[in-house]
Design a protein that fits this description.
- By secondary structure, the protein is α+β, with helices and mostly antiparallel strands.
- It contains 16 helices and 42 strands.
């Protein structure tokens, strides 16, 4: 509080006295107004500038109170949802307990049909009641739909139940940084989504220029703020890759790094990066880390030792599968190379059209179309491409002046040894019509010597070339043996083999020399189809000029890094769910997301998603009450995705709902020693000579489907004496099939005491044999999956009771116990979360009181003190007014 402004007792001017008095009055008035405002508002400060430290504390406390208030609201809402969930769950256990009791009552052999039908009716009603509970809605939200709160979770479809929700929880904050789950999913309570059909194959997507760095190394990505140190052994440059977001960005930064006097190039293969340095000047290419960085290691190109001037081949960058991943980029990589020409805007990225190693080590050669054939060469825009698995001999068109005397020369041996051979014409006197030919392998020149007077005939030239043996010569269509070689051709080159010859696995690109551009060549390669080509954007000055540069005849490259196989989109998969068959076609899908949409959008009741590891997909069934299988549809799609439910690795113990494959040894009370052979299945084969051959199989030692297939395929009597039997998985759907490769009649017999053939699906249930007049017996799929849910259990129990299958009733009753445990655990979990939230709510209420008290201490006024100060300041103001009135009445006479 300001004090009273002193009045000087010495002589002062009237102006100064008035100023001093005015300031005193103003100070008193401001203090009175401030105190009046504090008393009326209850706030000690109204502006941060009045007490900055206190204002900062108050702002922090106010924000904290706001957050805590919202959290308290979240907790109250969560408690209401959990309470509604708990009330709904209380009926589930009671209902299942009643059904279990009724089922136990009719599980004996002495019950009547009427008693069993009554329980069947009770089970049907229980299914409807459980569906209604599962569809409970509270405050506009389905309680058991997982995160799909606006989707009705359970629907009865015939005698099956479809779950449309998911297994994700709804989470919210019960305190700052503390999350709680405010729901119990239908999957947790009732079930409804089958166990995952795990994608057992690493889909291994290719690395491309657009691959994001965050997806590399199994999703771990590349550390931020990375840098590389690149050296040629003489000079070193630091490459900052911190701003790179894709693999293409990294390649561009490396190539533009500016290593003094050297050119760096980067090729992006299907698996990683290949860094190359020009071989001029020698040196040793190394790539190391900068300080304690990890960028080089994470990009797979760390090499402290160096590769001299050879290419530095990076390791596999292992990107994860994303929804945007192209299906054509799955299951390996395409053989790739970079075709470089001098200058800009003319480099190409060339890749095989299919994954795999088959197109590794393919050489790309640019051929001047006018050199190798007498036919007119192509014009720019009309380029064409030929791929040859076999080696080709070099050829050259030899054109002499005059008519009827043009030749085509072809090297006597295929390959590249006779590429770029020049044909030179020399003259000598006195040869007459004769000629001579000589090949110099050092200069790669074929010299044809003719009469300098122009009397040598073309026929003698052909004879001379053929006699020399390095090349063979043939004449043009208008060939005239008597035509002579004019003297104007003497001393000149009349042909060149160029790049026309090649080793095995060569891609020949025929161009117009000096005019065919990179865009022209790319179009020709793409039109041929064995490879695909695209303009290398890193060599382009701008988008408009990309591909306009001319491709050099000297440009050549060799493909590498192809691996894996091509994904079979066309065949699709066959899904059998609850007795219905669905053939799903992926031929129009381009990306993983489109494939997932086809699976999830089908009527097969599927839930498909990328797995947690990011290297494959999982497929699950949403239908309860039936069986679920995934098989092939004539191709390899399901196997490639790793989602075929019956494979060679499938355990026999998992077949037939866990019953397995019971052999003769299993049926004996005291089985003989393991060394004793007991026949379970006999395959009777027509030997083609009027007799039969019996392949006896003891399957007691078989553990997997592949073991069974191997026993048949490797049987001592198979593949001999006219017998050719193959056991394999079916190409359509699932199951084991036995095929007589000779197409002769075939029979499968199940031996007494064994159920192996029946349990493998090779003979019908209850039968002892199966026959085929065409030599193919296709088994049924006995590896059925089921959705683990209360609805599946009740459907199985209902069907077992209706069929009076006591053994199946027992299995279903045991599953009801598991369903009861699941529901009880879900209810107890909800109750535990309620208790935890109630405790959090009480803590929040107490904390709110403490926070508001602290806020009050920071900004609220002490009314007693403020009123006391107001009275004092009012007295000061009154005194100031009186003093002012007294002083202003004085005149000069008062001071004389």
């Amino acid at each position: 509080m300001a004090g009273i402004v002193p009045i000087p007792n010495s002589r002062i001017s009237g102006l100064l006295a008035r100023e001093r008095l005015t300031k005193q009055l103003q100070a008193d008035q401001l203090d009175v107004f401030r105190l009046q405002e504090q008393i009326s508002t209850g706030r000690r400060i109204t502006l941060p500038s009045e007490d900055a430290p206190a204002a900062l504390r108050a702002i922090t406390l106010q924000r904290l109170i706001e957050r805590k208030t919202q959290i308290s609201s979240n907790v109250s809402t969560g408690l209401s949802y959990l309470d509604a969930t708990w009330q709904s769950l209380s009926d589930v256990s009671t209902l299942l307990g009643d059904i279990r009791g009724a089922a136990v009552g009719v599980s004996g052999t002495a019950t009547t049909e009427e008693q069993r039908q009554t329980v069947v009716n009770d089970i049907n009603r229980a299914i409807e009641q459980l569906v209604n509970i599962g569809n409970t809605r509270f405050r506009g939200r389905y309680l058991f739909a997982g995160s799909q709160t606006n989707v009705r979770p359970y629907t009865i479809a015939g005698d099956k139940v479809l779950y449309a929700g998911d297994s994700k929880s709804i989470r919210n904050f019960s305190d700052i940084g503390v999350l709680f789950e405010s729901n119990a999913t239908g999957q947790d309570v009732f079930g409804g989504i089958s166990a995952q059909v795990l994608g057992g194959t690493d889909l291994n997507p290719q690395v491309t220029a657009s691959t994001r760095l965050s997806s590399l190394n199994g999703g771990s990505g590349v550390s931020p703020n990375g840098a590389l140190q690149i050296s040629d052994g003489f000079n070193t440059v630091i490459v900052d890759v911190s701003k790179a977001t894709t693999v293409g960005d990294v390649a561009r930064f490396i190539e533009s790094s500016g290593l003094p006097g050297r050119a760096l190039s980067v090729t992006i293969t299907g698996s990683g990066l290949v860094v190359d340095i020009d071989d001029a000047g020698g040196g040793n290419l190394t790539i190391t880390e900068v300080a304690s960085g990890r960028a080089a290691r994470e990009l797979g190109i760390l090499n402290r030792t160096g590769v001299l001037t050879g290419p530095l081949v990076g390791s596999d960058l292992n990107p994860v599968v994303l929804k945007t991943t192209r299906l054509d980029d799955l299951l390996g990589s395409k053989a790739t190379t970079r075709l470089e020409s001098p200058g800009s805007n003319n480099d190409l990225i060339v890749s095989a059209a299919a994954n795999g190693a088959a197109f590794n080590d393919v050489t790309i050669q640019i051929v001047d179309s006018a050199r190798h054939s007498l036919a007119p060469g192509v014009s720019a825009g009309d380029e064409y491409v030929e791929y040859s698995e076999a080696s080709r001999a070099a050829t050259a068109a030899v054109r002499f002046g005059g008519a009827g005397n043009d030749l085509v020369l072809e090297a006597s041996a295929p390959g590249v040894d006779f590429n770029n051979v020049q044909i030179f014409v020399a003259g000598a006197p006195g040869i007459g019509p004769g000629a001579a030919a000589a090949y110099d392998p050092i200069t790669k020149r074929l010299t044809i010597t003719v009469d300098s007077a122009g009397t040598t005939t073309i026929d003698e030239v052909v004879n001379a070339v053929n006699a020399e043996g390095t090349f063979t010569a043939t004449g043009e269509s208008a060939y005239d043996p008597a035509a002579t070689i004019p003297t104007t051709d003497i001393g000149s080159f009349v042909g060149d083999t160029g790049n026309s010859g090649g080793a095995a696995k060569t891609l020949y690109v025929y161009v117009e020399n000096g005019r065919s551009t990179a865009s022209h060549v790319a179009a020709a390669i793409n039109a041929e189809g064995t490879f695909t080509a695209s303009i290398d954007a890193r060599d382009s000055q701008n988008l408009a000029s990309a591909g306009v540069g001319v491709v050099s005849l000297a440009a050549t490259a060799t493909t590498a890094a192809g691996s894996g196989t091509t994904f079979d989109k066309a065949s699709g998969i066959r899904v059998v769910n609850s007795g219905q068959t669905f053939d799903l076609d992926f031929s129009l899908a381009e990306t993983v997301d489109e494939l997932l949409n086809i699976l999830n959008g089908s009527d097969a009741g599927l839930l498909a998603e990328i797995n947690e590891a990011g290297n494959g997909i999982n497929i699950r069934s949403r239908l309860s009450g039936g069986t679920f299988q995934i098989g092939e549809n004539g191709g390899q799609t399901a196997s490639q995705l790793g989602v075929r439910t019956l494979t060679g690795e499938t355990k026999l113990a998992d077949l037939n709902d866990g019953i397995g494959v019971l052999t003769k040894r299993d049926s004996l009370i005291e089985p003989p020693a393991p060394s004793t052979t007991l026949t379970d299945v006999t395959i009777v084969v027509d030997d083609g000579a009027g007799g039969t051959v019996e392949l006896a199989l003891d399957l007691s030692t078989a553990k997997t489907i592949q073991d069974v297939l191997d026993q048949v395929n490797n049987h001592p009597l198979n593949n001999a004496a006219g017998v050719a039997i193959r056991a394999q998985l079916t190409s359509v759907g699932n199951g084991v099939e036995i095929v007589d490769l000779n197409g002769r009649p075939l029979e499968i017999q199940q031996e007494f005491g064994s159920h192996a053939a029946e349990h493998l699906g090779l003979i019908p249930a209850g039968q002892t044999s199966a026959t085929s007049s065409v030599g193919t017996i296709v088994g049924r799929d006995t590896h059925v999956l089921r959705t683990d849910s209360v609805f599946t259990t009740l459907v199985q129990l209902r069907d077992a009771i209706a069929a009076n299958d006591v053994e199946a009733m027992g299995r279903a009753i045991a599953k009801i116990d598991a369903d009861l445990n699941r529901a009880s655990f879900a209810r107890s979990d909800v109750g535990a979360r309620q208790q935890a939230l109630e405790l959090s709510q009480r803590n929040l209420e107490d904390e709110d009181v403490r926070l508001r008290s602290a806020l009050s201490d920071a900004i609220d006024v002490d009314l007693v003190e403020a009123i006391s100060n107001l009275v004092a300041r009012q007295a000061s103001l009154q005194a100031s007014l009186q003093t002012t009135a007294s002083i202003l009445q004085m005149s000069l006479l008062n001071f004389l």
